[in-house]
């Protein structure tokens, strides 16, 4: 049995993962193009007596998608190791064939097909797509042309051709979907083809899955598996309200937690791809962190609203507008930033060049900043900008201070001011100011947040720190304001500055 490519990212502890499952105007449309055939199909109250009539009308427009790729492989078993080139067979390459399976659905009588980008785009960078085949439920196969694809939204449009019209379905209004609504998924799980499952919408606008510009999904308990990716999620009127995209699973199989790209997100992008238009998105150029209780406690603001700016990219729209690391963005052009409506989503869906107001909190004060939205870089460019903190701690010869004192008791940290000798050991300039972490109590919140030996503390609650007295004063001030945490701006060797809310231990 042929399986689709699976792309996974850790989501929760316990080996669970989030897996991509290779895989216009609203209105009730059916696969037989008969808008009137849907009436009185489902009882007004209670569960549907059967999904058979609905399935019979929709299933002809749901297709299986298979691809063939040519993958270039190296014959050198030592490729990428220090021994590469020592045995005389470096550079020898060969090719092999790879395949993937997924689902899709026809959205027009002339044969436009919607699926996921990861169904038709090989995840292997050494692979080249050679052929895409679309198979209808009656077994007829058609060679498909890739009309357009968009990696950011994980959407792709194909085109198949025949003399007679194709059955098709249309997008519905996913914004009207509610948790508890019945839905039907049709697709090609594990290559079985023509598989129908039903369930309810478990949640609307589920976020926090990938952190990208389109981190908004419909969650459903309708059983979807590998091979369902790109297939439709229907409402009871026969409208496509979602495109099945991913599952949350500790085993790789369905556990009743599936995710679909909302139709309201997909439909405008599909229209642009069909029209051959370039898809451009707004961009600020900031590294952001969702607001949580620790950050809110450190900043003394309400939790679960706004997003915290960890860093600002030089030369991008945010820096040009005066946004700074440590700002909290509350609204974008009057729209609140919430877990369901992230800063990335709001900005990405704003046309580049548009001037919009951002309401922020800086140093406890509200202010409004006008921003000229920039243009979002490609997925490859964004990936190149990503960074992580250096995991290697530098050697440190300074003696450890006594465990007595306010800083170890409140934060579980032992710190000392940076001297020219320490600066050289850390690989930073002699003019660097701040405190360096010498040791961390592993039971403290600081350890859970990733602080370790060799990390430099630059500021506390927005104010520079050069001595242990500066940090002690900030701790006393936070306690005097009944704050449960303080905000440290820290930098690991070779890494960027990052703001971390550290919870205070109870006073002894």
TrEMBL record:
Instruction: Please identify the protein, giving its name as recorded.
Output: Probable periplasmic serine endoprotease DegP-like
Q: Which NCBIfam families match?
A: degP_htrA_DO
Annotated signal peptide: 1-28
Q: Which GO terms describe its cellular component?
A: periplasmic space
Q: Which residues form the active site?
A: 118, 154, 229
Entries under PANTHER family matching the protein: PERIPLASMIC SERINE ENDOPROTEASE DEGP-LIKE-RELATED (PTHR22939:SF130), SERINE PROTEASE FAMILY S1C HTRA-RELATED (PTHR22939)
- Please tell me whether the keyword Transcription regulation is annotated for this protein: no
UniProt catalytic activity: Acts on substrates that are at least partially unfolded. The cleavage site P1 residue is normally between a pair of hydrophobic residues, such as Val-|-Val
Any one GO biological process: proteolysis
Keyword annotations for this protein, in alphabetical order, are: Hydrolase, Periplasm, Protease, Repeat, Serine protease, Signal, Stress response
Q: Which InterPro entries match?
A: PDZ, PDZ_sf, Pept_S1C_Do, Peptidase_S1_PA, Peptidase_S1C
Q: Per the UniProt entry, what species is this protein from, by scientific name?
A: Croceibacterium mercuriale
Entries under SUPFAM superfamilies matching the protein: PDZ domain-like (SSF50156), Trypsin-like serine proteases (SSF50494)
Using the record's annotation, list all stretches that form the PDZ domain: 285-346
**A molecular-function term among this protein's GO annotations:** serine-type endopeptidase activity
Q: What is its EC number?
A: 3.4.21.107
Q: Per UniProt, where does substrate bind?
A: 118, 154, 227-229
Q: What class of enzyme is it?
A: hydrolase
For this chain, the family text in UniProt reads: Belongs to the peptidase S1C family.
Instruction: Report the subcellular localization.
Output: Periplasm
């Amino acid at each position: 049995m042929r399986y689709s490519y699976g792309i996974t990212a850790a989501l929760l502890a316990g080996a669970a993962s989030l897996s991509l499952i290779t895989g216009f105007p609203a209105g009730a449309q059916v696969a037989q193009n008969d808008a009137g055939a849907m009436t009185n199909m489902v009882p007004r109250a209670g569960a549907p007596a059967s999904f058979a009539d609905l399935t019979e009308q929709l299933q002809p427009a749901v297709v299986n998608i298979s691809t063939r790729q040519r993958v270039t492989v190296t014959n050198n078993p030592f490729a990428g190791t220090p021994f590469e080139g020592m045995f005389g067979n470096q550079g020898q390459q060969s090719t092999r064939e790879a395949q993937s399976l997924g689902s899709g659905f026809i959205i027009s009588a002339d044969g436009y097909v919607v699926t996921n980008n990861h169904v038709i785009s090989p995840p292997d960078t050494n692979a080249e797509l050679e052929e895409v085949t679309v198979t209808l439920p009656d077994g007829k196969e058609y060679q498909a042309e890739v009309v357009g694809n968009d990696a950011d939204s994980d959407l792709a449009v194909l085109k198949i051709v025949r003399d007679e019209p194709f059955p098709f379905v249309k997008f519905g209004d996913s914004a009207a979907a509610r948790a508890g609504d019945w839905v039907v998924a049709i697709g090609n799980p594990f290559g079985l083809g023509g598989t129908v499952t039903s369930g309810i919408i478990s949640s609307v606008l589920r976020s926090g899955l990938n952190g990208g510009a389109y981190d908004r999904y419909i969650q459903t308990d309708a059983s979807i598996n590998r091979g369902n990716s790109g297939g439709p999620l229907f409402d009871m009127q026969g409208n496509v309200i979602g495109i099945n995209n991913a599952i949350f699973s500790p085993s790789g199989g369905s556990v009743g937690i599936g995710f679909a790209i909302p139709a309201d997100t997909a439909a405008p992008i599909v229209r642009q791809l069909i029209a051959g238009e370039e898809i451009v998105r707004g961009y600020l150029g900031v590294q952001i962190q969702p607001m949580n209780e620790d950050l809110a406690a450190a900043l003394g603001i309400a939790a679960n609203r706004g997003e915290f700016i960890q860093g600002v990219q030089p030369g991008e729209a945010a820096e040009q507008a005066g946004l700074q690391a440590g700002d909290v963005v509350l609204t974008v052009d009057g729209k609140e930033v919430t877990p369901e409506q992230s800063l990335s989503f709001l900005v990405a869906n704003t046309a580049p060049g548009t001037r919009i107001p951002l309401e922020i909190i800086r140093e406890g004060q509200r202010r409004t900043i006008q921003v000229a939205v920039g243009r979002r870089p490609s997925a490859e460019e964004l990936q190149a900008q990503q960074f992580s903190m250096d995991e290697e701690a530098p050697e440190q010869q300074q003696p450890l201070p006594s465990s007595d004192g306010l800083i170890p008791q409140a934060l579980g940290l032992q710190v000392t001011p940076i001297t020219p000798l320490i600066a050289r050991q850390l690989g930073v300039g002699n003019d660097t100011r701040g405190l360096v972490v010498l040791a961390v109590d592993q039971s403290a919140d600081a350890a859970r947040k990733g602080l370790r030996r060799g990390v430099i503390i630059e500021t506390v609650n927005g104010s520079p720190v050069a001595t242990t007295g500066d940090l002690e004063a900030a701790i006393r001030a936070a306690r005097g304001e009944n704050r449960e945490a303080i905000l440290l701006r820290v930098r690991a060797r070779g890494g960027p500055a990052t703001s971390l809310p550290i919870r205070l231990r109870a006073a002894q």
